[in-house]
Amino acid sequence: MKNKIIRVILSVLFVAIFLLYIGPVITVGEYNLGIIAGLGFDFLLLIYIIFFNKINLLIKNINKKKVGNIVLKIISAVLCFCILLGGVAFCNVLSCSFKSEEKSDVAIVLGCVVNGDKPGIFLKGRINAAYKYLNENPKAIAILSGGQGNGENISEAKCMFNSLTQMGIDKSRLLIEDKSTSTRENFEYSKELIEKSGIKTRKITIITNDFHEYRASRFAKQNGFTPLRYPSKTPWNGYMPFATREIFGIIYQIFLAQ
After folding, report:
1. C-alpha span between 104 and 141 (Å, rounded)
2. What is the enclosing helix (H) or strand (E) of 164?
3. What is the DSSP code string of 90-159?
4. Which of 20, 52, 72, 157 has the most beta carbons within 10 angstroms of its beta carbon?
5. How far is CA 35 from CA 152, 237, 249, in A?
6. Sign of CA dihedral 211, 212, 217, 219
7. How far is it, in rounded angstroms, from Cα 102 to Cα 99?
8. For each of the chain's 258 residues, which pLDDT tens digit applies?
9. Strand ranges, E, within the chain
10. Which residue in 178, 177, 174 sits closest to 153, CA to CA?
11. Sign of torsion, CA 46 50 52 54?
């Protein structure tokens, strides 16, 4: 009876994980490290559910042997460490996915994929958030940060500039930074632009997707900024895949690549 209850719980967990991670694959044909990790884990969970008794018996038999017991303990320790590290990273991502109460007169809008010369779905959300922020704060200016990548006819910064001016934002309130190719460079080059423009404030508002705010804030701090957040909200069926991808980015770029 106990094993049946456990398998039911695991089955519910399998369905929940599948629904949380499959969304971008169905809606926009997106595949990334977060989606692969989530669905990969879900596949392993399914295998465990199907062969529940056989796998448990195999583990029990391996554990009876001295070498097997040591190997299982090492594997368990590594898994616990990975779960702890990933959990800390995810908690940081989640805690920074919300809007700051305070506002600043300088916003940095981070670029994302451009399809030809049109904004992709995430960039469109960031543009809309920037438009809303600039309307809420008439004295604010925005630095549009993002270079030109593969398959993009114009830079991400130029795409944002075109969209925002078409929406009615005065071009005098928009500064273009079109050299960056990563989140780290977004802030390095934006800092150079701010200094060249004679802007004195170090308090800036970061406009990007909610799952991206934490990593962006870390890079902002590394460049001497005091970051505030104004996130573009990600649909529920897209948040977990990209938040999971962010975990890998955080672990590598912030924890390891110092």
Report:
1. 9
2. helix 156-166
3. HHHHHHTSS--SS--SEEEEEP--EEBTEE-HHHHHHHHHHHHHHHH-TT-EEEEE----TTBSS-HHHH
4. 157
5. 24, 11, 14
6. positive
7. 9
8. 888 899 999 999 999 999 999 988 887 778 889 999 999 999 999 999 999 999 999 999 999 999 999 999 999 999 999 999 899 999 999 999 999 999 999 999 999 999 999 999 999 999 999 999 999 999 999 999 999 988 899 999 999 999 999 999 999 999 999 999 999 999 999 999 999 999 988 999 999 999 999 999 999 999 999 999 999 999 888 899 999 999 998 888 765 555
9. 106-110, 114-115, 118-119, 141-145, 174-177, 203-207, 226-229
10. 178
11. negative
Q: What is the DSSP letter of 200?
A: -
Tokens of 21: 């991670």
Contact 156, 148 (CB under 8 A): yes
For β-strands 114-115 and 174-177, DSSP reports them as unpaired
Residue (of 140, 109, 142) closest to 125 by Cα position: 109
* Token duo for residue 244: 């999971």
What's the pLDDT at 3? Answer: 84
For 44, 48, 55, 57, 126, the CA distances from 71, given in Å and listed in that order, are 20, 19, 16, 16, 47
Residue type at 193 in one-letter notation = L
Where b means 16+ CB within 10 Å and e means fewer, 56-88 reads eeeeeeeeeeeeeeeeeeeeeeeeeeeeeebee
